[in-house]
Amino acid sequence: MIRHFDLELKNLKDQILAMGGHVELAVEAATQALIQRKPNLLSQVHDLEAKINREHMEVDESCLQLLARQSPLAADLRLVIAVLKISTDLERMGDQAVNIAYNTKDYLEGEPIKDLIDIPIMASTVRNMVRDSLDAFVRQDRDLAAEVLKRDDVVDALKDKLFEELIQYMSKHSSNIERALDLILIARNLERLGDHATNIAEDVIFAVTGDDIRHGGKQCP
Prior knowledge:
By secondary structure, the protein is mainly α. Helix content is 81%, strand content 0%. The protein has helices at residues 4-35, 42-69, 74-107, 118-139, 142-172, 177-209. The longest helix has 34 residues, at 74-107. The two termini are 36 Å apart.
């Protein structure tokens, strides 16, 4: 017999997936506006962020209602706690997408200062990290969550490489410092998106196994 708690938990998972889908769309719209030089895409980011904010509040309310009506056991309680934390990371991802949109708007007001090579790779990697971290949560797949953690190093390395290139560029092209800074901030926000996806993966591992691997805790092979 299916427990009433399981039905409510499925509803929570559906809410998280919908919220995550809007985050993916917001990140894609913000980054594709930059890559394709299509500023008209940026309005979508702000519309999606408004949806993400509403969904964040709805998920929190659903979790509180569930906890008030039920007395979940340890494993179930870990899942509800994970949902609360994941929704917060997703809401912050929406903020990061808006930050990218603002910097993209400024950058597109002038001519390109360099070929965009690392940023498209970062954007694609981050979107996949978001998708896979949420898939790992829904499937309770510890191994997939562990794979997401490994990809964060790829994003960090690309960000460091781009920072170095742009700092060298600014030392030789002082008239374009502000626009180079736009790209640096975009890369920084992409890195933060990867960090939030990593947080979700860590929460999945905690929900599934009870192991807390944050801040150098138990290592995840």
